[in-house]
Structure formats: structure tokens, C-alpha cells
Amino acid sequence: MVSRQTLVVTGFVLAALPVAYLVEVATGEFALSFFALLAVGVGAPSLVNDYLDGREGGQNGV
């Protein structure tokens, strides 16, 4: 069975690729597309999972 955290991360990683491409096309800056890739593929799922864990009362002493 797949956990909620895995589904959230997978969804954001799959969304990060087209977002990074669109940022590259719109701006022509590789650095901005790289930061968009990191923000959407790494930062956003971490924030969403932390928020959802907090709502479920799963704050492990943090």
C-alpha cells in the first residue's frame, strides 16, 4: 500500500518537470527553471507533508 507522503511527493515531482520547462521557455533562464524545479519538486511536498502531518496530530516532538 502506498503512503500519503509518497503520493504527495510523486505528484509534486511529476508536476515539477513541466513547471520547470515552462519557466525555462517563459524566461530563457536555466537558473530560474532549476530553482522552480527544486521549489516544486522538493520544497512544496515537504511543506505539504509537514502541514498534513500536523493536522493529523503526527508531530513527532517537532
Please characterize this protein's 3D structure.
With 62 residues, the protein is mostly helical. It has helices spanning 4-27, 30-55. Pfam families: DUF7987 (PF25949). Keywords: Membrane, Transmembrane, Transmembrane helix. This is 1,4-dihydroxy-2-naphthoate octaprenyltransferase.
Compact overview of the structure:
The protein is mostly helical and 62 residues long. It is built from 2 helices and no strands.
What descriptive keywords fit this protein?
62 residues; mainly alpha; 2 helices; elongated; DUF7987; transmembrane helix; 1,4-dihydroxy-2-naphthoate octaprenyltransferase; transmembrane; membrane
Backbone shape = elongated
Tell me the helix content.
Answer: over 70%
Give the terminus-to-terminus CA distance.
27 Å
Query: Count of DSSP helices?
Result: 2
Number of β-strand runs: 0
Average pLDDT, rounded to a whole number, is 91
- The unreliable regions are none
Described by strand count, sense and barrel closure, the largest sheet is: none
- Name the structural class: mainly alpha
The run of helices and strands is HH
The percent range for strand residues is under 5%
Q: What radius of gyration results from the CA coordinates?
A: 14 Å
